[in-house]
Amino acid sequence: MRVLVTGGGGFLGSHLVARLRVDGLDPFVARRRDYDLTVAADAERLYADARPELVIHLAAEVGGIGANRTNPGRYWYANLMMGAHVIEQSRLHDVAKTVLLGTICAYPKFAPIPFREDDLWNGYPEETNAPYGLAKKALLVGAQSYRDQYGMNAIYLLPVNLYGPRDNFDLETSHVIPALIRKMIDAEERGEHEIVLWGDGTPTREFLYVDDCAEGILLAARDYDGADPVNLGTGEEIAIRDLAELIAELTGFDGEIVWDATKPNGQPRRRLDVTRAEERFGFRARVNLREGLSETIAWYREHAASALTP
Fold first, then answer.
1. Which of 42, 121, 216, 248 is the most buried (most CB within 10 A)?
2. Which of 35, 47, 75, 132 is catalytic?
3. How wide is the angle at C-alpha 199 spanned by C-alphas 161 and 132, nearest 5°?
4. What percent of the chain has pLDDT over 90?
5. Rounded CA separation 9/214 (Å)
6. Angle value at C-alpha 158, between 136 and 122, nearest 5 degrees
7. Is the dihedral angle over the CA atoms 27, 100, 31, 206 positive or is it negative?
8. Coil, strand, or helix at residue 256?
9. Can you list the positions of beta strands (E) in the chain?
10. Is 209 a catalytic residue?
11. What angle is formed at CA 132 by the lines to CA 20 and CA 275, rounded to 5 degrees?
12. Which is it for strands 161-163 and 194-198: parallel, antiparallel or unpaired?
């Protein structure tokens, strides 16, 4: 099978590509330096080069709260255009199956806990995430519309916050786990006894280890052909304050954690209902948070210099 992975050189993409190679597949990996998917001509050229039978669309422009506040227009435009071009080119090239990744940021700010897929449209997303989240949610509309009109087999998955080895540790654009790991290890190495974190620590988040996510994507690619969106997660949440304390324990940081409540908290709570993924294609996360954090911290300690190279 000819498999195209957009964003295959990124964090999740690198793990997914490695997993595909374990299965004996040699995916065509689309990187931004070679194909700018916000440009229609580049998307067309990519499909002509790859001739895919299965497309897994992971390419995205995204960051943490700070990056989302700085780049709302870019994140809306880039993610919307990339997804639209992928869907249209999959139709034009009669791709057998297209797997589209959404985002947990697409859920309403005050969605009932746990987040159920049927609540996806019952409110507006948290404001700092909204441009990115709405752009990605538009891909669900595209997938369902193309299914209805053209019979296109496009599925839509909603992974929760990811983490793991090879994550983005740039403090300007990283998400909470790599940012906490870097801040604590850097402080420890410099002999500093205080770090400052955004918000008040009360919001909760759910985290999925990157290899678990890759496994869920491949299970869905193989066994799921439905129009309904499907959550990928663990079904377990943790307060950011408790997460910071756990990472401090695992990194050995014994300094003071100061919370800057003038900075935004983001969405108040995140926890997914993950029953649909298990029922539809047998996915259940395997790596618990402590184990996954330990693996991520060990990787960062070993690769810190290269991880921070642009």
1. 216
2. 132
3. 40
4. 90
5. 14
6. 75
7. negative
8. strand
9. 3-6, 28-30, 54-57, 97-101, 154-159, 161-163, 194-198, 204-205, 207-209, 230-232, 238-239, 256-260
10. no
11. 55
12. unpaired
